[in-house]
Every structure is written in structure tokens, then in C-alpha cells.
Design brief:
Layout (H helix, E strand, L loop, with lengths): L1 H4 L14 H11 L2 H4 L11 H11 L17 H14 L18 E4 L29 H8 L3 E7 L8 H14 L1 E9 L10 E9 L17 H4 L15 E2 L21 H7 L4 E6 L5 E5 L2 H6 L5 H8 L4 H9 L4 H12 L2 H4 L8 H6 L1
Parallel strand pairs: 1-2
Antiparallel strand pairs: 2-4, 3-4, 5-7, 6-7
Helix pairs in contact: 2-5, 2-11, 4-5
Length: about 375
């Protein structure tokens, strides 16, 4: 989305994804999937076994909790959609099964990894190589980077990646990249400093193969769109909390608290006010003059990730609300990527600085 939005010509040569709903959303937004699914039999094999065999070969879709392949359990209509979506997006599937020799050449490799084992909301199992944790899938990227040597790498993950418990592993990974010939630069960036009203701090790392100078991350810009600009009008009653959860004062914020993939589970007004998470808003007043409180709609959470309504429409027509909430909470804020890629590919004369006096990880750690 970011590359498209800032007008950078590019070709997506492949992705690595295991979750079925995410695959379908990506296909809906970035390919002709929605059009082809109307006459889907013209685009998929007639053999159910052939489709199952293909999906199992890339190990998708996986049950996110058990990691069991669900291809054989899909009904015919869902199986056809899953087959078509994966083909259209050139999904190589489960990264642990990818053979790098089967991959095309890559100029820009964007990557992340599950954050559950390093997030402050998780169990802190860590990301050590060969530990078997979901976050340790970071190390599966190594075989691809080694084999293809993309000119640029761009990584994103939660702030706690550079916390005291996990920073040593992160720096170890950077040393590994340096050994391959990459110049690494990383920094903590907050989405609200780059055009999107959400307080979402994430680690971004840009690496250049055979680079000489550190990457200069884009400067923050003042917010011009605020929380109120992201909200829908005439929201259905189903999004409002119970009648006893009302507020004497409106909830007024310029920016949203950080969204997570569990937003669909909901929250209580008291928890929101004390914990400052799972964002709530006030919308109108009741018969007693008290402010009614509601959850964000899926569209609002996607807007708060910097996604355009046209893209939201495409994902919404094939996903339940729960899936939409999960996908927005797991995503990367588009406007932050726009700023990074603008600096990298448009403002190239300013992108790499020989004057940097400190490694960027030292500057960021302060």
C-alpha cells in the first residue's frame, strides 16, 4: 500500500503468509481476486485433490493456535477461494518450508515475525534461534537473505524487541546481517509522528547490502488528521457498550491508544480509563444527558492503521468483523512506511548520512 500510495513503481514477486483470512484480504486488495471469484471455476482446477495438494505443499492455511493444516477440512467453495488467493499473490507459504532456490530475485525484502514471545502482553519466551518459539521465526529469514542478498531489507516489530529481555538477541541478529555485508540502521518510530493519529511505537530496521552510511530515518511531522477524523457516523447500536456504561464527560483524544489484535474481545469503560488500551469513544448522549460509549468499528481500526477506505471495502466484503479487527491490530501503519520508503527511494540524496556520529541503535536506546 505504501509503495503504491507514494507512486513507486514495483512488482510484488512473492509473500510468505500462513493465515487464511489474511491471504484472502491481501488478494482482495492487491489482485483481481474479487472479480475472479465471481466465476471461480474458470480459474481453479476441477480436482479437489490438486488444490489440497498445492495448499499443503506451502502449508496453508494453518490453525493459528495448533498450527495444523486446514486445507483438507475446507469446504469446496472455501477451498477454491483459498487456492485462487494463494496463486494470485504468489504466496510461498510457511517460511520454515521455503527453499530459497525457488525464489525469484528480490530488491526489497520486508519482513517481520510473530511478536507474542517478546511483547509485554505475552509470556516473554523470547526469540532465541532454535528455541521453537513463534518469535524465533525471525531466524528463518536468514536463509532467504543469505541466498538472495536483496539490496534493501526493512524489518518491523514491537517496541519490546529492544527491551532489556530481548535486545541482546536483536543485536545478535544485526551482527549476523553485518557479517553478510549489510549496513543496519534502526529506530523507534511512533505512528502519531507520521500522519496517523495512533500512539503506536514500533521498531523499524533498514539494512542496505554493501551500504557505507547509516540510513537516516524521516523526521516527525505534525498531525493534521485526528481521532475525530477517523470516526464513522451513525454507527449501529451493536458497537455500543451496555446502557449502564456511560460517561459524564466525552472521551476526547487527538490520537488513539495502540490497537492490538485482540480488540475484538472488547473491554469495559473502567478498564479503558485505567489501562488506556482497547480504545473506546463517546458517541451521542442518552436520555439522561450522559455520553454513550462504544467500541471502534472495524473500518475505524483500519483507518487508524492508515488504510484507505477503498482498500477497507475490499477486505470487508470477504471477512467477518473479528478477522478485520485481528488484521488491523497485526498490521503496520501505512503512513510510517510511506515516510520510510519516501526517504529511501525518493529522497535518496538525504537517505544515507556519512555524518552520523552514533550508531542508530545507541541513539534510539536513549
Amino acid at each position: 500500500m505504501a509503495l503504491r500510495n507514494i507512486g513507486i513503481p514495483f512488482e510484488s514477486v512473492g509473500v510468505s503468509e500462513i493465515e487464511g483470512d489474511v491471504i484472502r484480504s491481501y488478494a482482495a486488495i492487491h489482485t483481481d481476486f474479487l472479480s475472479q471469484r465471481k466465476n471461480i471455476d474458470a480459474y481453479v482446477p476441477s480436482s479437489r485433490d490438486e488444490m489440497v495438494e498445492y495448499l499443503e505443499s506451502i502449508n496453508v492455511p494453518l490453525d493459528y493456535k495448533t498450527f495444523e493444516n486446514r486445507a483438507r477440512a475446507l469446504k469446496d467453495a472455501a477451498l477454491k477461494e483459498m487456492y485462487l488467493a494463494n496463486k494470485l499473490i504468489s504466496n510461498f507459504g510457511d517460511i520454515s518450508r521455503i527453499n530459497p532456490s525457488n525464489l525469484p530475485d528480490i530488491d526489497l525484502f520486508t519482513y517481520s515475525f510473530p511478536c507474542q514471545d517478546i511483547s509485554v502482553a505475552g509470556y516473554q519466551r523470547g526469540l532465541s534461534a532454535n528455541s521453537g518459539t513463534r518469535s524465533s521465526l525471525l531466524w528463518e529469514c536468514c536463509k532467504i537473505i543469505e541466498a538472495k542478498k536483496p539490496r534493501f531489507l526493512m524489518m518491523e516489530n514491537v517496541k519490546n524487541l529492544v527491551g532489556c529481555n530481548h535486545k541482546q538477541n536483536f543485536l545478535k541478529f544485526l551482527e549476523y546481517l553485518e557479517g553478510l555485508g549489510y549496513k543496519n540502521s534502526w529506530r523507534l518510530l511512533n505512528a502519531r509522528d507520521y500522519g496517523t493519529p495512533q500512539n503506536r511505537v514500533r521498531v523499524f530496521c533498514v539494512s542496505e547490502y554493501k551500504g557505507r552510511n547509516p540510513f537516516v530515518f524521516p523526521d516527525p511531522v505534525p498531525l493534521t488528521s485526528f481521532m475525530k477524523d477517523m470516526l464513522e457516523q451513525n454507527v449501529p447500536d451493536s458497537y455500543f457498550l451496555s446502557e449502564d456504561q456511560v460517561s459524564e464527560k466525552p472521551i476526547t483524544q487527538d490520537w488513539c491508544y495502540c490497537l492490538d489484535s485482540n480488540y475484538w474481545k472488547g473491554t469495559f469503560l473502567k478498564d479503558f480509563l485505567t489501562k488506556h488500551r482497547r480504545q473506546l469513544v463517546t458517541d451521542g448522549v442518552d436520555g439522561n444527558g450522559l455520553y454513550r460509549v462504544r467500541r471502534l468499528t472495524p473500518r475505524e481500526t483500519w483507518r487508524l492503521m492508515g488504510v484507505r477506505d477503498a482498500d477497507i471495502d475490499k477486505a470487508s466484503c470477504i471477512n467477518a468483523n473479528t478477522a478485520l479487527y485481528k488484521q488491523s491490530g497485526n498490521s503496520i501503519v501505512v503512513s510510517v512506511l510511506e515516510a520510510i520508503f519516501t526517504q529511501l527511494f525518493i529522497n535518496t540524496d538525504k537517505a544515507f548520512s556519512p555524518e552520523a556520529s552514533l550508531p542508530l541503535w545507541e541513539a534510539a536506546s536513549t
